[in-house]
Amino acid sequence: MANAGSALHRGLSTRHIRFIALGSAIGTGLFYGSAAAIQKAGPSVLLAYLIGGAAIYLTMRALGEMAVRTPVSGSFGYYASHYLGDFAGFLTGWSYAFSMLMVCLADVTAFGVYMSLWFPDTPRWIWVLSIVLGIGALNLCSVRVFGEMEFWLSLLKVCAILAMIVGGFTLLFFGIQLGEGQASMGPSNLWEYGGFFPNGLEGMIASFTIVMFAFGGIEVIGITAGEARDPQRMIPKAINSVPLRILIFYVLTLLILLMLLPWSSVGSLGSPFVQIFSSLGINSAATVLNIVVISAVVSAINSDIFSAGRMMHGMAAIGQAPAVFARTSRFGVPWMTVLVMSVALLLGVLLNYWIPEELFLIFASLVTFSVVWVWLMILLSQMAMRRGMTAPEIQALHFPVPLGNGGQLCAVVFMLFIFGVLGAFPDTRLALYVGLGWLILLSLAYWIWIKPGSFSKAGIKAGIEAHEKG
Known about the structure:
This protein is an all-alpha fold. The protein is built from 19 helices and no strands. Mean pLDDT is about 75; it is low at about 1-10, about 455-460 and about 465-470.
């Protein structure tokens, strides 16, 4: 493609797609955030991850069924518009793009904090500026370059998790204590300190908000469909393998932590990763962990800018975002979306400097609400698609969902249950209020600036044909 246009290039392999999803979903939520879930639920957090993982798998299968049938940029934003109406698509697309921006704001700030461990005298804004410019430049390259970078960053995180799992098993097998006076280790830790449900069933339910936030990002698999070389082959492979791998990484890692330490002390004695590496004789455990966390942050920023950019590109194709967002460079990259995200991140750094921490946490709460909202829209879109298909068309699907309508309905009920959990507990209730307020603001914006009924099925058909030619 010699000149700028509006078509994306198909340059992502199965390897790229798998690790893009891993990079987005495995990050600080595992390395640090899981401690908060453990404090709420105790050992029963393992059950919460299993239940949440099952719901996520059903959601990703719903997304996979639609993505294999119609692989387009914008993915679930397109599908929500096509099967639920342009209003639902508008809410879904912009909520997702905004949540990706909020996650990026948190991650670029975290990058500055992590770099300060090595360079305490260097102002943090220098590191923040460098990562924003660096990731922005990377996202302007061809999608193959992006995919390759994300592959290596995600591979580093996966290797660190595997090292932690192997190291933890080594400590358990040889009975190496994590420190002087440390309590006994072993499977008995799962029930000796107050039982498997030390805070009752309510504690496990409270942990669901953190657990589901940790899985956020895996939906990027659907967004990659518009740039996958062979969507009908690659998307099923990625969806069938990545959710299971993420579930294994989370559950195995937390299982080892809970057998090594009493659940009440996880996170209170410093990073469990540092404790494990130190006990294995790795004196530079803090440095090793910092390298891993920095790679996790860079990977997440990289993936989130990619996801938001492709979502806005897809929305622009059907008139739900400024038309300039649909333009691509000669590399097939939606350059304007990358530029807007980079500028927003620079402004966000300034806002993060001036706005008190409490307000910034409000934005983080919105991310949780938005991600669950997107998953709910994916499920409802797939169910609406099925209702509009004939029996022969359903039989011809290349990647049908498992368990039929019953499984999808259970996943829908579970997502609605998560909204109820957000409102049931005081420390997460604000997320529900802010999320509902955001949807109201988006609704007003839709009725003021987007002409009702302007979306047409001919528009999405033309977009699909353009991607097939690309």
